[in-house]
Write a structure and sequence with these properties.
The protein is of the alpha/beta class. The chain has helices at 11-20, 49-56, 76-96, 138-156, 175-182, 198-210, 233-240, 260-266, 274-280, and strands at residues 2-6, 25-30, 41-43, 61-64, 101-107, 160-166, 169-170, 196-197, 216-221. Strands 3-2-1-4-5-6-9 form a seven-stranded parallel β-sheet, sandwiched between helices. A two-stranded parallel ribbon has the order 7-8. Strand 4, helix 3 and strand 5 form a beta-alpha-beta unit. The longest helix is centred in the first third of the chain and has 21 residues, at 76-96.
């Protein structure tokens, strides 16, 4: 089966590509050459429909990871133009080329809490997929519109799309920053101390790829615990979000992002906990224990 990964030179793609390449033909698509030179690569922008069409020919699945982040010194208009127009071009080209399924990499930035200009609290915790979306920054706004475009395409065309709202993705190279922030609850309060290990992010993508879900749906993807060295989540919620209702009892380290929908529908299971980062130093994903990828072919 042919899988095309946009944003093929990005951080998540570096960990995803070797897993998928075990059993499938993959193509990395990006404007920059990826570090992993062993995989087929095509240079191109996600706003270049002619180039996308060439890349998507014969593809069975598209994994759309490409996007610009606001915090990396990209001008707001550049973020909006690239992410919104680029996602539309990817969707349109996938539909034109007869792609069966597309996976859209979204973000919990759509909630608007983490990058809020005028800081606000969640309306309730744990946060699930029904929580209102109130993004204020270009990246969050672009991801919100990306999700809506995905939903609209499944209504009008014969393509299935799953959007995954990733919390902050932890990679081993991020260890020192996470360890420093883990000591100060205020450092990541706006992100609700949510995180997900890159190994679990890859596993979520695998679950979405093998899912027989039809139409469109969206899922939060986060670790089951918070990225803090010492945590008392009920007290932290009371301290930083005193007016936010707590919908059910929470344990001391429990995540404020509810991923039960992904577990129930996609079969997603979290493997990594922040205690491992604290005690083992954020070791590389253990490939020997990674889930075997078996995406069954279907008639085109």
């Amino acid at each position: 089966m042919k899988l095309v990964i946009t944003g093929g030179s990005g951080k998540l793609a570096r960990y995803l590509a070797p897993v998928l390449a075990r059993e499938h033909e993959i193509l990395l698509y990006d404007k920059q050459h990826p570090q992993q030179s062993q995989f087929p690569y095509m240079k191109g922008k996600i706003t270049d429909r002619a180039r996308l069409s060439e890349a998507f020919q014969g593809a069975d699945r598209i994994i759309h990871l490409a996007a610009l982040r606001s915090r990396y010194n990209h001008l707001p208009m550049k973020v909006m133009a690239t992410n919104i127009l680029g996602t539309y071009c990817v969707l349109e080209t996938a539909q034109n080329e007869g792609v069966e399924k597309l996976l859209f990499s979204s973000s919990d930035a759509v909630l608007g809490i983490a990058q809020s200009v005028n800081e606000f609290a969640p309306e309730y915790v744990p946060v699930d997929e029904k929580h209102p979306l109130k993004p204020q920054d270009p990246y969050g706004i672009s991801k919100m519109h990306g999700e809506e475009m995905c939903r609209c395409f499944t209504q009008g065309y014969d393509i299935d799309i799953i959007a995954l709202r990733f919390s902050n993705i932890f990679c081993p190279e991020d260890e020192q920053k996470y360890l420093a922030d883990a000591k100060d609850p205020s450092a990541r309060r706006k992100s609700l101390w949510a995180w997900v290990h890159v190994e679990d992010a890859v596993n979520a993508i695998v679950c979405a790829l093998v899912s027989d879900l039809k139409g469109y749906d969206v899922f939060h993807i986060a670790a089951e615990d918070v990225c803090l060295s010492n945590s008392d989540i009920p007290n932290l919620v009371a301290t930083y979000f005193p007016k936010t209702p707590i919908r059910r009892p929470l344990s001391d380290k429990e995540s404020l992002i509810d991923c039960s929908k992904a577990k129930e529908i996609l079969g997603f299971q979290v493997r990594r906990r922040f205690a491992e980062v604290l005690t083992m130093g954020g070791s590389e994903p253990h490939s020997k224990n990674s889930r075997t990828i078996k995406i069954m072919s279907s008639e085109r």
